[in-house]
Amino acid sequence: MKIFDSLPKSIKKTLRYINQDVDSLYKLEELQATLNHYIEKRKRQLKKGS
Length: 50
Fold this sequence. Notes:
Number of domains: 1
Helix content: over 70%
Distance between the termini: 32 Å
Protein name: LytR family transcriptional regulator
């Protein structure tokens, strides 16, 4: 999987955590909300800087 291999180590660890250690829907939804928050924040920063 070339895409996975090219990702930063921290992202790989996050994906492995999701696949192996998340044991409830609640935890997964909380993680999703947190990731979405930071992704949207970064999108706004990048759009503002363009």
